[in-house]
């Protein structure tokens, strides 16, 4: 069993195009009955598949760091919907968050800290400026509208994924007003920091935010809270499904 460093945030992603036909039922076998029932309710197979990939990735990743078989994990659901793995006495204080979008699933894992991840498929037909004006903070809209046209889409998805990663880390979902906090981006579109309006009691100094690009079609953001966020090491890993399954199906599991 591997151990997760106290100062480590592990970010793994799994592209569905890397998953072979014979691997899908093996990934589905890592889920519990309730998840399989949820998967079955998706209308489109691509949605069913990425949901399956995300939940298999979550379970297999947790099992890399605890003596629990992937399908045996149970989760409690917070007041606003955030799932947390139920740990036994003696388990490392693992905390994880998943995100899935067309073609990509991701999991962020850390020890005992609020963590959130968001992935988005950038080819979606999104009415960029309309959505920004509706959901983003005024200062974010001003930054977006000031960018050259060829950077507008990347800037939009930077704000979108960072905002989602933050609300997912705090676990409050959309009950948190999206215009009550604002990110600032540097010239390269990387997060410089977050500012809160008085409607949110939080401390910008306790947060670490990072963006990632996964190929041409996906962007991702991570949010993690720590008293000294800059000491955290973020370890990223594009997951090989065969290797993930080999560990998840090992007899000791
Ligand atoms: C539910 C929400 C937390 C994430 O939704 P999302 O971006 O569509 O979905 P993601 O794939 O990133 O994350 C889904 C996973 O987050 C987890 N999750 C659910 N509620 C959560 C919460 N309150 N906090 C953190 N994580 C949560 C679950 O594991 C869920 O997986 P599941 O649906 O397969 O069980 C919420 O933020 C939401 O509904 N967002 C809508 C997007 C939007 O309108 N954004 C406006 C522009 S910024």
Report on the architecture of this protein.
By secondary structure, the protein is an alpha+beta fold. The chain has 2 domains: 8-113 and 233-248, Ribosomal Protein L22, Chain A (Alpha-Beta Complex), CATH 3.90.470.20; 120-225, Ribosomal Protein L22, Chain A, CATH 3.90.470.20. The protein has helices at 23-28, 33-40, 45-64, 128-135, 138-146, 152-170, 241-248, and strands spanning 8-15, 75-77, 83-85, 94-101, 104-111, 115-121, 181-185, 191-196, 207-214, 218-225, 233-238. It has a 4-stranded mixed beta sheet with strand order 4-5-1-11, covered by helices on one side. It has a 3-stranded antiparallel beta sheet with strand order 6-10-9. The longest helix has 20 residues, at 45-64. The protein is globular. The model has no long low-confidence stretch (mean pLDDT 95). The protein binds coenzyme A. The site of coenzyme A (COA) has 22 residues, from helix 3, strand 4, strand 6 and helix 6.
Task: Describe, in short, the structure shown.
The chain is built from seven helices and eleven strands. The protein has 253 residues and is α+β, with helices and mostly antiparallel strands. The longest helix has 20 residues, at 45-64.
């Amino acid at each position: 069993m591997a151990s997760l460093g106290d100062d480590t945030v592990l970010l793994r992603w799994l592209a569905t195009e890397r998953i072979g036909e014979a691997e899908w039922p093996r990934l589905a076998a890592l889920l519990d009955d309730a998840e399989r029932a949820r998967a079955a309710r998706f209308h489109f197979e691509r949605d069913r598949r990425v949901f399956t990939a995300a939940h298999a990735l979550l379970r297999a990743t947790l099992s890399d760091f605890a003596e629990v078989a992937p399908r045996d994990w149970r989760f409690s659901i917070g007041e606003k919907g955030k799932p947390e793995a139920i740990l036994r006495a003696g388990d490392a204080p693992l905390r994880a968050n998943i995100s899935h979008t067309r073609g990509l699933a991701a999991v962020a894992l850390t020890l005992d800290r609020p963590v959130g991840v968001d992935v988005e498929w950038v080819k979606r037909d999104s009415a960029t400026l309309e959505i920004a004006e509706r959901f983003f903070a005024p200062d974010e809209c001003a930054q977006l509208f000031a960018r050259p046209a060829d950077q507008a889409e990347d800037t939009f998805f930077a704000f979108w994924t960072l905002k989602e990663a933050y609300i997912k880390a705090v676990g409050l979902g959309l009950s948190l007003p999206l215009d009550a906090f604002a990110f600032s981006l540097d010239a390269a579109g990387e997060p410089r920091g977050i500012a809160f309006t008085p409607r949110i009691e939080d401390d910008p100094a306790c947060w670490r935010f990072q963006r990632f690009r996964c190929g041409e079609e996906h962007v991702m953001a991570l949010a993690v809270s720590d008293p000294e966020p800059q000491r955290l090491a973020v370890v990223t890993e594009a997951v090989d499904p065969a290797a993930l399954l080999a560990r998840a199906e090992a007899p000791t599991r």
